[in-house]
Amino acid sequence: MPIPLEGWRDRSDKRIYVWFDAVIGYLSASIEWARRSGDPEAWRKWWSDDAARGYYFMGKDNIVFHSVIWPALLLGYSGEGDHGGEPGELGRLNLPTEVVSSEFLTMEGRKFSSSRQVVIYVRDFLARYDADALRYFIAVAGPESQDTDFTWAEFLRRNNDELVAGWGNLVNRSVSMAAKNFGAIPPAGELTAEDRALLETARAAYGSVGGLIERHRQKQAITEAMRVVGEANKYLSDQAPWKMKDDLDRMGTVLHVALQAVSDCNTLLTPFLPHSAQKVHELLGGEGVHAPMPSIVQVEDLDGGPSYPILTGDYSTGSRWESVPIESGRPLAPPKPVFRKLDPSIVEEELARLDPGSRGHLRVSHVAADPGD
């Protein structure tokens, strides 16, 4: 659309993108959700309450639309712009609390481009790999504060060396030894200084990891959680419970401490790895939902239009952000691997898919639309 200002209207090289009015969808979607919830005024909890906080996540190319255009629209509607005025019929509306942006992600040194087949579509990816493998890579190596390059070699390394050999190995050997030797979570006997140190490290991580998430430092947060995983693996290797068959009380204590650390690490990693978090919860003998997941539901239009899909979910249940003591005596079964080790051959296979001359292309869909699209 042309810029409605003198001296700019006739400039063919200057236009305001669709994001000028598309950002209104944040508010209209909230109002629509409230209508569906049975409480048409529920949206005001986020838009009219001064105590509410609004965080907008996006790539850096969308910053201007959320830090300039959207606040300008909200200020104007609320009568708080330079020209004054009165709020519209919805009343005063809250401005964004924070705009959280990431840098750009490239792929094998090239800019993502669907027209050039340098693109990953999520459904194609999930046909070959686990969702948490991709979530882990983006969280730990994504473009949070600088441009980052996705390579299949690095994806393979992160999956095999960190998820499988690190976190997955800790879960598998802790649960496996406890299931084999006790058939359940063994009780803890007298704790040593080493036992207490690991338990305190895991408990303290709720504050450090949680604080980093609150400040939108996702990469540092998951790195800190994985540091605790490393401490737990070191503890298990140092204590060597597999050598304690003549001292089952001590073996049980070590495994109890290790399993408590596994439980804590699982909660710390749940925001990043929700699919595997549910599996680990069940391997520890847990029941019910640990990590609530969203779902896509087709709904009827409230104003008589065509039906459409919405993303929704029930997040009233699930884990709490605190250390919860594990239950001694809870039955344990021999575990199945939480993560799948990938064969090195996948690197060449996926690179071949990126060749425009090949028959297929691996394609990750856009999380946010490019305003120039």
Automatic annotation (TrEMBL):
InterPro entries in the cross-refs: Anticodon_Met, Met-tRNA_ligase_1, Methionyl/Leucyl_tRNA_Synth, MetRS_core, Rossmann-like_a/b/a_fold, tRNAsynth_Ia_anticodon-bd
Homology family: Belongs to the class-I aminoacyl-tRNA synthetase family. MetG type 1 subfamily.
SUPFAM superfamilies (alphabetical): Anticodon-binding domain of a subclass of class I aminoacyl-tRNA synthetases, Nucleotidylyl transferase
Gene Ontology process terms (BP): methionyl-tRNA aminoacylation
Source organism of this protein record: Phytohabitans houttuyneae
CDD domains tied to this protein: Anticodon_Ia_Met (cd07957)
Domain Methionyl/Leucyl tRNA synthetase: from-to ranges: 3-174
Domain Methionyl-tRNA synthetase anticodon-binding, chain residue ranges per copy: 185-294
Keywords: Aminoacyl-tRNA synthetase, ATP-binding, Ligase, Nucleotide-binding, Protein biosynthesis
Protein's name according to its UniProt entry: methionine--tRNA ligase
Annotated GO CC locations: cytosol
Assigned EC number: 6.1.1.10
Molecular function as annotated in GO: ATP binding; methionine-tRNA ligase activity
